[in-house]
Structure formats: C-alpha cells, structure tokens
Amino acid sequence: MRAVSDTSVISNLAIIGRLEFLKQRYGSVMIPPGVARELSALSHAAAKSRITAAIADGWLVIENAPPAPPPLPFLLDSGETEAVALALATKADVLLMDEKRGRQAARHVGLAVGGVLGELLHAKQNGLLPDLQAEISRLRTEARFFITPEIERFLLSQAGE
C-alpha cells in the first residue's frame, strides 16, 4: 500500500513513541522535501530522533513532489501542498494528513485520506495497541493534539473501549 504523509501524522506519532505503526502498516511512507524540512524543525528531541532514525532506516522516504502543484480549491501551506502533489503523482493509496482544510483539499482532488487517530484505531483493532484511550490522552498532553469529545467517543466505541 502506497502512503504519503504530511507533517502532523508523523510528528504526532513520533512524539508519543508510536511512529513504528506506520512502518508496520505501510512498509514505507513517502514525504516531500517540504514536510522533511518541517519535521527537522521539531523542538521535541525524542520525536526528532525517531524521525531521523526512520529516514536512516529507509522506510520514511523523502521524495520530490512535482514542480507544479495541483489545482486545489484553496491555499494550503507548502508542506500540505507538496504532500497532495506527491500523493497524486505516485498514485498513493492514502494521504496521511490531520489538518481539516488539507483533508478537504485532498478529497477534492480524489485522494483517500487518513490521520493519526485512524492509525491509532487501526493499531488497536489489529492488536498492536492495548488501550486507545491512553494514546488519545497522550496525544492531548504530549503532542497538544485537539480532538472533540464526539470524535473521541466514536473512536472509543469503534475500539470496543
């Protein structure tokens, strides 16, 4: 399964020490140079180290995006735009992105999208994660990730928690 990621999914999973879930699910994940630059600017030392190790291990792969971005319904930041362009160019099965506007733009151009919460739910459903609630709590406290109570309740019900 071909996967391309924006910054947020990788950085948030790296912060909570769950970056390996992407490797286990996809084998490799492509990121464009703009995303690589954003990830290199992370202030979280442990997350930055995990990301650097994933790149060195060769499963987190920096790939150039096409020079001309696709026509999008609204302006995105450079990392998001490059990630959408790379996902389209490589015919990725999924674009990993958490930002609402980025997800909307990706869907507008026909891409399937996933996010950090879906990756954690998948891990829970496949026996890789014992407690989804604990990981959501860690996302909130360690990564400052926002999740509405409604979405949290839905995910926990899907996880059987």
Mean pLDDT: 94
Instruction: Give the name of the CATH superfamily.
Output: 5'-nuclease
* Order of strands in the sheet with most strands: 1-4-5
- Low-confidence region ranges: none
| Structural Rg | 15 Å
End-to-end Cα distance, whole Å, is 28 Å
SSE pattern: EHHEHHEHEHEHHH
The helix tally amounts to 9
Query: Would you tell me which CATH topology applies?
Result: Rossmann fold
Biggest sheet layout = 3 strands, parallel
Classified by CATH, the class is Alpha Beta
Structural class label: mainly alpha
DSSP summary, beta strand count: 5
The tally of domains stands at 1
Shape: globular
The percentage helix is 55-70%
CATH arch. level architecture = 3-Layer(aba) Sandwich
Strand content: 5-15%
